[in-house]
Write the structure tokens for this entry.
Amino acid sequence: MDRRARGTQHLALPTAAALAYFEITGHQVDGALATQTREILCDVAHALSILAPIHVMEGSPAMPRELTHGQLIGATFQRGAQLLTLRDGTELRDLTIQRHDLEDAVQVLKEAGILGRYAIDTRRAVGRD
């Protein structure tokens, strides 16, 4: 896969949120998906959605459709970023982000120190003893 094609690759949003968390804090999230871990992934997904386009896979065959900023206003990520509930109650699954957008957003988040609050006690934040 060439570099440009790799950048346009769609990643599942929960995976992208976990990758972003690791890139920023240097710690992996707990694979057991404890409640606090799911909340962290939702927070990271929210931060990513402010900085980069989020897509939902729809149709057959599944094709990515970019969510509008208007759809994201008032929406909440749930279940470790596996579900997005829009303000009208619509639930969306199969959320993705393109790799190049993820990389750009991670750079901004690193520079802003936005996830620094999780780095204070990362063992607790990721559900480890």
